[in-house]
Write the structure tokens for this entry.
Amino acid sequence: MTLAPLRPAALAALALGLSGATVLAQDDPHAACAAMGWVPREVLQRPVGLRDGAGALHDPVTTRSREAQALYDQGVAYLHSYVWIEAARSFNEALRHDPDLALAYIGLSRVYSGLEDPADARAAARRAEALAAGVSARERRRIGLRAKQLDAMDDPPDAEKHAAYKKAIDDALAADGSDPELWLLRGNAEERWASGRGQRGEAASVPFYERALALVPDHFAAHHYLVHSCENVGRIDDALRHGEAYARLAPAVPHARHMYGHDLRRVGRVEDAIAEFRRAYDLEMAYYAAEKLPAAIDWHHPHNLDLLAGCHQHQGQMKTAEAYMRESLAIPAVTDGREFNKKEWGVFLLALGRTDEALAAGRELAGGRWPATRAVGHVLAGHALVATGQTAGAREELDAAERESQQLGSGAAGISRSSVDPYVDGLRGELLLREGRRAEAEELLKDVERRIRAVPGPDAWTEALYRLEAVARAARAAGDWDLAAYTAGQMRDHDPAYAGTHYAAGLVAEHRGDAAGAAHEFAAAVALWKDADPDLPALRDARARAGQSGVPARPTGGSAR
């Protein structure tokens, strides 16, 4: 599939939203959001009915209203898929049917935490506490757990508060081990911070989610959280299995389709991954149109666009990738993480050799709202300057990046310094290469490669591939073929289904005088780039080099799908 780049008017329309609502101001993304994170209060309180496809779930609460129970269940289902807006609407609608439904306020509290609004998260929890006398012991336990969690979230470095929260869940499970929601909360609580909601779980979380599945076979939320946990510990086949189940059990949720795409990508089924990311995109666009919502307030939309673009880049479909990237860039950043992720545009431009545009993109990010973005913006500008021989200017950009990175912490809030340092060190290593200090450069850049490959999750995994490719290009440009060979090997370990991996290996083999090996790798690259843009420079070069040997083009080390 190909997609023509969107016209400026279309991009503006996407940023404004299909309702014509005013876009959130770039310099103050919270300006239009009342006190509730980045989503306007009016949106969270809009009436909503019952829907199909969000995932089957029943969490009994004290109410005489069947409608309130059903809407509450729907809110919990949306909550488990991080669909904050629809979860809030469902909980608020349930409260219209039954104003005393205490756990609906607990659900709203969790929504507000997802929207980075701690004040309203605490206020909603207090509303639940005020209603606790009229509910069951089971519900009172849940209300108490939320209070413990919020206490721990208010003080992330306090390990004792986090431990107290986990013990409180254990005590609740001792009283009622048949409650799947408690097992899901317990799995979430095994994350590094008490604010964990299923995205950062590792091996310790898995048994708790499996207990939820034992209680409720095919519980879609347990499958969802198991996808994340299995990805984070490298159990990709298991993640794929749970991802397929999640997509099947919550077919109307864009994030469910998106999660399945994560792991199709990891096993080399990139065309299938594109199809899932596109299904998520189509679901989102239909939703915005039906509900008259601006895409800018949905955190998931730009995230899905980024992975969709990355998959097309993997296939050598750079024009389509660029169209999706531009669509993503047109959406204002409402969080530091979203602004930080806009770095991929500069990385993409550098990969295409569009250094003037990459320099401009880097300098735009260097003027960003948050220090992590400013740091990586200086790094990208520095790489662009190195590519044009302006090493003195690149050194100045490195110094600026280091100053910005020193403002970053290592806690639960915001982008951590450990996420930014590999970018800063990558620029430092490239400058060392250009200065002829190869031993230092190789030691540093090999460590950068180790660090970027160690970051869990599919987003980081995809980013790591293109950053490895950038190091390989820098090594070849500096004439350091030992580092180029090492990095090509890292690319092969990371993703043997990527044509660029074989192209990098072919260049190394050719430099070493291994004509047969080079021809084999170039032929594999040509085969894997079978659906690439015909004018992709690397494809044309690989085709020319493979043709010199007469070796038939066939992929190696991974599927072309």
